[in-house]
Amino acid sequence: MIRATLIALSHNARAKRFVLSNRLARRTARRFVAGEELDDAVAAARAANDQGLTVSLDFLGENVATREAAVRARDMYLGVFERIAREKLAANVSLKLTQLGLDFGTEFCEEQMLAIVKHAESLGNFVRMDMEGSAYTQRTVEMAARLRRESAAVGTVIQSYLHRSEADVKTLIAAGCRIRLCKGAYLEPPEIAFAEKKDVDANYVKLMRILLPSGVYHAIATHDPAMIAATKEFAEEQGIAKDKFEFQMLYGIRPDLQRALIREGYRMRVYIPYGRDWFPYFMRRLAERPANLMFIAKNLFRRAG
Ligand SMILES: Cc1cc2nc3c(=O)[nH]c(=O)nc-3n(C[C@H](O)[C@H](O)[C@H](O)COP(=O)(O)OP(=O)(O)OC[C@H]3O[C@@H](n4cnc5c(N)ncnc54)[C@H](O)[C@@H]3O)c2cc1C
After folding, report:
1. pLDDT (tens digit per residue) in 61-109
2. I want to staple 287 with a disulfide (CB 3.0 to 4.6 A). Which of 3, 58, 213, 302 is the partner?
3. Residue 130 designated active-site
């Protein structure tokens, strides 16, 4: 219920105005977002690299309103790859197709993506297409498979809460596409998505067991100790070496667990978002853990009291 409300509010202009003008909410958001500028993300990336973690930089933005904004986002990403190379960061990039104009047509968006993929490839880097709401799943999977034919420098994401994901995993593995497995962060109807956590988790483990032995380098993205334990156990049982896949977590969430996995010899990549358009990302993070919301509420009441 709280989750559904928060995710629905992530598209609400009034909620956005309220949160952006609230100092405590802005401060809480800083736990999940490195800052508003690329310099902030670079500093966070360097700190993570110094601790043995690789990173993925995400310039926040989604569902842009104009084609011009999509082209500006493309140019921003071309610059991010230059900066990563110049700073010698152990970093790649994650982005959303609706930031690159998917709402204005698949062909237009794919043109922007292809420019980014080719640039990433020329610098020996990699770009990951995040997975958004289910309205975009089919187009994202198809575009990932097409772009993968052009270059190995592109991959995408699969969400274990969707019923269709096993079929998508098989399609993408056949295309040689690198996959990040996550549970899924959007609000989806029960006709297409598992509603119960136990079913989402069971599907996560099932998909992980398909991904790991596939011979493609995939990412297991979760903060859930049970999913992590299942992955370690399966990899060990199958003799899959620790450098044949990576764990991924979000900036600001379970840094203790991130460091513990590094100490155990696993690969760990931290997803570092930055930029001014942090509102929807922040709301999804609140939705994942209502305790985050309670923290804000308690502080608001303490001030009012
Ligand atoms: C690197 C990365 C990339 C992602 N990319 C995508 C994507 O492209 N598309 C997409 O739909 N989703 C994406 N997600 C989000 C994902 O789908 C989940 O919503 C999110 O990771 C929470 O699921 P979980 O696996 O951590 O398990 P959960 O069962 O939700 O959480 C397990 C535990 O993790 C901790 N935790 C989880 N979330 C939070 C939080 N917000 N604040 C504090 N603690 C928390 C808590 O201790 C919780 O008990 C991504 C996640 C990661 C880590």
Report:
1. 999 999 999 999 999 999 999 999 999 999 999 999 999 999 999 999 9
2. 3
3. yes
Q: Of the candidates 61, 14, 19, 41, which has an alpha carbon nearest to the alpha carbon of residue 292?
A: 19
Question: What mean pLDDT comes out for the span 40-56?
Answer: 98
> What's the rounded Cα separation, in Å, for the pair 57 and 98?
17
Return the half-sphere exposure (C-beta side, CA atoms, 13 A cut-off) of residue 122.
9
What residues are paired with 93 via a beta bridge? 57, 127
Distance from the alpha carbon of residue 222 to the mean position of ligand 1, in angstroms: 5
Q: Ligand 1 pocket: which residues have CB below 6 Å? A: 130-131, 157, 159, 180, 182-186, 221-224, 248-250, 253-254, 271, 285, 288-289, 292
Let me know: does 244 contact 236? Beta carbons within 8 Å: no
| Nearest protein CA to atom 24 of ligand 1, as residue | 222
